[in-house]
Amino acid sequence: MIGKKLRELRKERGWTQEELGERLHIHRSTVSYWETGFTDPPLEMVRALALLYGVSADYLLGLSPRKREKGP
Length: 72
What we know:
The protein is about 60% helix and about 0% strand. By secondary structure, the protein is mostly helical.
């Protein structure tokens, strides 16, 4: 489930797996593994991804249907 959301969010921004990897300082293949469900991102990366995409970690983990975080 998280992989599908990660792919969707990346594509919405028009980023390649390589570009996302550069933003997170990880290899492109790691992004591919996450998006295909081969592996899941570690907790610290879930946090980094949520911050990067402006969504909640709950959304990424499938615990909340809300895509965007509330503003202050």
